[in-house]
What does this fold into?
Amino acid sequence: MTVLTQATAEAPAAEDRSAFAEDLLAGLSATPKRIPPKHFYDPEGSRLFERITGLPEYYPTRTERMILERRAPDIARLLPVGAALVEFGSGSSEKLRLLRDVLPTLSAYVPVDISAEFLAQEAASVRRDISGIAVLPVVADFTRDFELPPQVRARPRVGFFPGSTIGNFEPEDAAEFLRQAGRILGPGATMIVGVDRIKDEAVLNAAYDDAAGVTARFNLNILRRMNRELGGDFDLSAFRHRAFYNVADHRIEMHLESLKAQTVTVAGRAFSFAKGETIHTENSYKYTVDSFRALAAEAGWRPVATWTDANDYFAVHALKL
Ligand code: AVJ
It folds into this structure.
């Protein structure tokens, strides 16, 4: 993960595409082959992810929603009145809406996202629906350094990182992200983070290999994206979706497995695949309540509360600097 680099002034779409090409050429040249999961989310990938969140096997989204709604009063009690809520990688601001009981405590909402267009739309809809809160969007890659709007510097600050997105980071990068979030938010800050928990392997495996095949389409869509945006000639029927829980490393791994020996061209370069060779497209790390608290503590945060569900599937952690 690149940290401490200022977000570029380039148009996000152009930056996106060249970053995609660069990551891809580097990742397909590596052994084993890999592509970073952030490139899943073109419009079709985002649509498929939305469908994943509604699948019967995919428990994280609905479980976290339930915890946030139920525990909003407890979260509110931890926050200083007049706090500014900074959401890292906000996407749609629907999680803010779940925190209905937190809203009276907030003076500002700062959604941070790389997609300027989506961010502007969401900001407008939050302004329309929620009164008494200044909406101050920041266009930035939240894994890099960025500046908070000057209006919130004098207010208490709360970071919000839901969705277990932190699970996509290698644990050392997750710690680095938390450290950097602490630097951005500053002394006295609070952080609310959603984290998926280690659980029965069968439950984990089903969540990433659903019966309807939506996750398979989500994974394979990255090949379609390479074909469309980078002139690739991937045959989608010559690859299959694989997802499994790696017990030793506490993570779900997603791969695209080549069903035969083949050579594919993308971005003007040829890449050979052996039969059975995979492209590693995602890690989704899982934590125990204690292993996540230890990680946060290592990054300079003090764990102050953890809320979970009756199945112990998911955890929402509150941290203080
Ligand atoms: C958005 C990273 C939290 O890891 O569960 C869902 C992405 N990948 N199904 C996750 C994902 C396959 C998701 N995160």
